[in-house]
Amino acid sequence: MHTPNESAALLDGIRVFIEPAHVRSDPDSCLNYGRDWTRLYTPNPLAVVLPGTVEQVQQLVRYANEHRLALVPSGGRTGLSGAAVACRGELVVSLERMSRILDFDPTDRSVTCQAGVVTEAVQNFARDHGLYYPVDFASRGSSQIGGNIATNAGGIKVIRYGLTRDWVTGLKVVTGCGDLLDLNRGLIKNASGYDLRHLFIGSEGTLGIIVEATLKLTRPLREPSVMVLGVPDLDSVMSLYHILRNKLELSAFEFFSERALRHVLKKGLHRPFDTETPYYVLVEFENPEQLHTDTALALFEHCAEQGWLADGVISQSESQVKELWRLREDISESIAEYQPYKNDVSVRISRVPDFLAEADTLLTQEYPDFEVLWYGHIGDGNLHINILKPVGMNPTAFAQKCGAVSEHLFAILQRHGGSISAEHGVGLTKKPYLHYTRDETEVNYLRAIKQVFDPNRIMNPGKIFD
């Protein structure tokens, strides 16, 4: 930590090359920019800097190296792992001013944008040009492309379209040394050595700052239909997945529990059908001119005969598609007031049933007085477990209790060959548990990579590993 006089001098030095209005140290800015959605840590940044150009980012990183000033890159701050939290006097670097779409190539079906562009803006830009950017999630309206790339964001369409990594064909990054790298330049084929682009995708700002990205686009989904199905048990969820995936071109296969649904319904949405079941599956598939409706209905009847579902509904309009999707997408927002302790885990799809059974038994035993909500992108093996904090319980005590149980949960996960973080990153919250997914030899290689790109350890220090 710096003394007040040292801090003032450091910020005055930054104001020489970044406009004073964009170097902020007021309490509101420090609170707003110094945290993400975890709310588990008290923000305490030195200040917030909002560079407007790549050159200013480079100057800032070089200045930080000279003065050994820790930097925390900041996007939309919608993360859930504490990766964008500044709680140790770091300087927050927000790229929200760098929010322009720079280039569009209809032949390549690609768009180049600055890192501060909001995800939904890229989606809207693609739609306006008759194309589609398929990386999608509930925080699309506030998350930023740079943050999406830094965490290799997944979302609700991974089963068909993959992760952010699959859509990034070029990156410009400022390394922890202040060098500007122009990686892959939008090429589809490039067999000219190591592809450093993929080191920065998912690096959580620990190697440098992403400043520009070139993204692939694709054709839009053709008249998607959505089914919501009421399911009696977790085994039936997987039975539905196998048969529907083989017969329909799925773009999403999501699930959520009745407990999760009830929180969404409290916010004004309507139950999709009268029957209450322990679990629900949301399936989206292409259905141009209702071409696959008969197949979907026949599958519904077959699955009902097998006892795999108790009720269901299929969308009849575009507006109903959006309404049904809200049953799944609004869950996180609907439970935010309970300050949930979140686990975002993944296993191979074939391991989902066994892992779910063991994990559900553990959580039922360990949390008799807590409400536990399950939901997730089960079509890609990604499960979200949310434990809601009881009203009046001390947040620190709650987090400690949940953390102790996480040790047992991650031990189960390790036996099934899974990951402690499917799409939210490691950050601060999952750092103590990294050894359940990565062994010490592998982590040592990660440390060696960081040493190359960030020898003075100024880039998001303390995140992923110490």
Annotate the secondary structure layout.
Blueprint: H1 4-14, E1 23-24, H2 27-33, E2 47-49, H3 54-67, E3 71-74, E4 91-94, E5 101-105, E6 110-114, H4 119-128, H5 145-150, H6 158-161, E7 168-175, E8 180-183, H7 197-200, E9 208-216, E10 224-231, H8 234-247, E11 250-257, H9 258-265, E12 279-286, H10 293-305, E13 311-314, H11 318-329, H12 331-334, E14 341-346, H13 352-366, E15 371-377, E16 382-388, H14 395-415, H15 440-453
Helix pairs in contact: 8-10, 13-14
The spatial strand order of the largest sheet comes to 13-10-12-11-15-16-14
Using the CA coordinates, give the radius of gyration. 23 Å
- Straight-line N-to-C gap: 18 Å
CATH class of the largest domain: Alpha Beta
Shape: globular
- CATH-derived architecture of the largest domain: 2-Layer Sandwich
Percent range of helical residues? 25-40%
Strand portion? 15-25%
Describe this structure in words.
The chain has 466 residues and is of the alpha+beta class. The chain has 15 helices and 16 strands. The chain has a seven-stranded antiparallel beta sheet with strand order 13-10-12-11-15-16-14, with helices on both faces.
What is this structure, in a nutshell?
This protein is α+β, with helices and mostly antiparallel strands and 466 residues long. The chain has helices at residues 4-14, 27-33, 54-67, 119-128, 145-150, 158-161, 197-200, 234-247, 258-265, 293-305, 318-329, 331-334, 352-366, 395-415, 440-453, and strands at residues 23-24, 47-49, 71-74, 91-94, 101-105, 110-114, 168-175, 180-183, 208-216, 224-231, 250-257, 279-286, 311-314, 341-346, 371-377, 382-388.
